[in-house]
Amino acid sequence: MSNQHIRVQRQRALMSRREFLAASGATALLTALPGFVVQAATEPPPMRHVSLRPGKASAQLVPGKYPTTPVWAYNQSVPGPEIRLTQGDRVRIAVENALDEETTVHWHGLRVPHDMDGVPHLTQVPIGPDKHFVYEFDVPDAGTYWYHPHQRSSEQVGRGLYGPLIIEERDPITVDREVTWVLDDWRLERDARISDNFANRHDMSHNGRIGNTVTINGEIPDSFQVRQGERIRLRLINAANARIFALDFHDHQPQVIALDGQPVTPHEPANRTVVLGPAMRVDLVLDMTGDPDTRFTITDTFYSGLEYELIDVAYGPESLRSNTLDSVIALPANTLPEPVMEGITRHQIRFNGGMMGGGMMGGGNNMMAMMRKGKMWFINGVAASDQVMDPLVTLERDHSYLIEMINDTAWHHPIHLHGHSFRVVSRNSKPTPHQEWQDTVLMAPEEKVEIALVADNPGDWMFHCHILEHQAAGMMGIIRVRT
Ligand code: C2O
Ligand code: CU
Ligand code: CU
Fold it and tell me: What is the residue with the minimal CA distance to atom 3 of ligand 1?
């Protein structure tokens, strides 16, 4: 499996005249303050340059005698190029749209300023065909993220527009090898073409566009070569429209070290399976504790009765070391503000809709009328029809909030908030063992989940289900953080 590292040129940021004036003004002010020692100006963060070109391409998703698959891809490759930056960098990403339709790029999970978030109409004018747009922002947190369009996402992401976005720690943990696996699930016809029935009624009202072909980094995986004693940091990204993965590593014991990019106390995953809803990321430390010349299979067990073998892990003949590496695997904390739980302001958000036992669930008259217009899912009784709307809740900047989310449906939903990460504090009224930070939380049918956050990033932020067909069918809203 190839990891294309994008070529990023490191170069000093050229200060604009305005920035220069601001900087010199600040220095003058500091000099004027008595008792203030003026430090040598700190160097601006290095500016990194990336260019992305979404357009038509073809990819050999299915090996052997099958033809290539016509896809939509960034820089002609599925996944798009791995963008690798270091925490604290500033990045400028030039996007040139070679598609026949409008697009945007969203930096999923990264806490960027509102106008850089890539949501059409809400945060920017969409990028038309042959037009370009330059995104530029600082990278606040280390971790595993990804990028994808936010325009007609079900089809644009479903045809292959997505790529990994890796932010390295300034002081990373010691491992022998680092590997990124971008998981995707495609619905292919017999000739390896992508089935055209995007956002159809059935997918929208059930569990989304579940496909028939799972790829890792754009290929149906065959085997993954390892050595005895090797310690691997495995970054998993679920880029599928709808498929939820539950990966079982057989007799190996992966340690979860980060969720959605954010460090978590290293722990074995619950039920020894690594669960990733759409858009979620998990960083694992995987010690290769098997014997040389043996193999084992990683299986995906999420949908009962539909378990399948994802990939074989094959040990080579040689051994790197006979015991496991004795190094620290806990990641350094990121820069998230900690919510103050005492006297915290509470809000409640309820999710309804979808099919159950042949009928619509929990619908009132309003919902039945919306359903006739192709909307199947509701947040607090409202189905969104575009990405600009009245907020579900309005939060005061820098205040702490607890949001109780209630899944009144018979389906799973990975619920995602833009611009912030939040702590998942309880599930069904029981505190979570790791109080993990996430930007996308998978809610089980009928589950109640409480999240807590500091609303420190001003703007109107998308809050939606990341099963892209649910999002298209109305499961989307806005959380406003007042400036
Ligand atoms: Cu991954 Cu609203 O996005
Ligand atoms: Cu996002
Ligand atoms: Cu959903």
Answer: 108
Counting from 1 in the atom list of ligand 1, the atom nearest the Cα of 108 is 1
Token pair, residue 402, equals 């607890």
407, containing H or E segment: strand 400-407
Tell me how far the alpha carbon of residue 240 lies from the centroid of ligand 3, in angstroms. 13
Q: Decide if pLDDT at 425 tops 70.
A: yes
Beta strands in 205-253 (DSSP E): 213-216, 223-228, 231-238, 245-248
Nearest atom (ligand 1) to Cα of 440: 1
Cα dist from 480 to 114, 378, 466, 477, whole Å: 11, 18, 19, 10
pLDDT in tens, 97-154: 999 999 999 999 999 999 999 999 999 999 999 999 999 999 999 999 999 999 999 9
d(CA 267, CA 248): 15
Say which residue the tokens 């990405």 belong to.
387
SS3 266: strand
Give me ligand 2 centre to Cα 26, in Å. 34
Residue having the nearest C-alpha atom to atom 1 of ligand 1: 108
Our answer on whether the CB atom of 470 is closer than 6 Å to any ligand 1 atom is no
Q: Is 157 in the pocket of ligand 1 (CB under 6 A)?
A: no
* Confidence (pTM): 0.90
- Among 72-76, 373-377, 427-431, 455-459, the minimum mean pLDDT is found in 373-377
Helices (H), 347-481: 365-372, 468-472
Q: Is 416 in the pocket of ligand 1 (CB under 6 A)?
A: yes
